[in-house]
Specification:
This protein is α/β, with parallel strands linked by helices and about 260 residues long. The longest helix has 18 residues. It is built from eight helices and eight strands; from the N terminus they run H-E-H-E-E-E-H-E-H-E-H-E-H-E-H-H. The N terminus and C terminus are likely disordered. The strands form two sheets. It has a five-stranded mixed sheet with strand order 1-5-2-4-3. A three-stranded parallel sheet has the order 6-7-8, sandwiched between helices.
Length: about 260
């Protein structure tokens, strides 16, 4: 994680108070699954910003980067995850985990025990941000209730990749709710169309729902207060019940996905 905003630095009183009110709730660990997108040039900025906002709300955050561009997992990680977790700010820790979930795949193709291992290795973490490629995320989220966070930018290839990731998770995990984070300049004229297009395709072809979207400006001030959209998106994520579930039963009434491209 580069250029990480230290969430312990002083913030305006009204911002900190608003964040604490917005994210008030129980202390149970929350999983925020962030689906990697190679067509988003500022994926690390998205990770940094999510961690900073969560930390500013008073949460203890563990960022687990298992994406294709992440550093490889430490050789000790397969023996003891806890010793490989690096504290990078007072409320934020980081675990490089490229390739690590594959070591947890069981006979049914699920790597869900990796999430259990993370929660056990970091019992102090209120929120775990897990960044992984869509095919790995499909293994991680089998039999688990979650609302994956998709990433995109203001160009067509990123949108197609986000849709493809959603389609894979619908088909393999039966997950029907998603959020979208766009790494783009807020003034981009394409953003509204991107959100509308992805939401339309999700509903029309997959029967899935895009709940919330928010823009993270890669060139913005990392210490600036998050806007209302990002507030709402994260508040919704933290309120989810992410207990294990039976995707076969939940997916019994899914509409069959149609072959289609997300149009720009």
């Amino acid at each position: 994680m580069r250029d990480f905003y230290d969430a312990s630095s002083p913030a305006p009183l009204d911002q900190a108070h608003g964040l604490r009110q917005l994210f008030a709730g129980g202390t149970r660990q929350r999983l925020l699954p962030l689906v990697a997108n190679p067509h988003v040039a500022f994926g690390s900025v998205v990770l940094d910003r999510l961690a900073a906002v969560l930390a500013a709300s008073g949460r203890q955050v563990l960022v687990v980067d298992a994406g294709a561009g992440a550093p490889p997992a430490h050789e000790l990680a397969r023996l003891d995850l806890a010793v490989c977790i690096e504290r990078i700010a007072p409320r934020v820790a980081y675990l490089p985990a490229r390739g690590l979930p594959m070591g947890y795949v069981d006979t049914r193709g699920s790597a869900g025990s990796f999430i259990d291992a993370l929660q056990a290795a970091a019992p102090w973490a209120d929120a775990i941000v897990l960044h992984a490629e869509s095919h790995e995320m499909a293994r991680l989220l089998v039999r688990r209730s979650a609302r994956p966070l998709l990433m995109g930018a203001d160009h067509p290839e990123s949108l197609k990749h986000a849709y493809a990731g959603m389609k894979l998770l619908v088909q393999r995990c039966g997950l029907m709710g998603y959020d979208l984070l766009l790494a783009a300049a807020p003034q981009s004229p394409r953003l509204q169309g991107i959100v509308h297009s992805l939401a339309q395709c999700a509903d029309g072809f997959l029967g899935a729902l895009l709940h919330h979207s928010a823009v993270i400006d890669p060139a913005g001030d990392p210490a600036a207060a998050p806007d209302r959209d990002l507030h709402g998106l994260l508040a919704g994520q933290l309120a989810l019940d992410d207990t294990p579930w039976n995707p076969a039963a939940a997916g019994a009434h899914h509409r069959a996905p149609a072959a289609a491209e997300v149009r720009n």
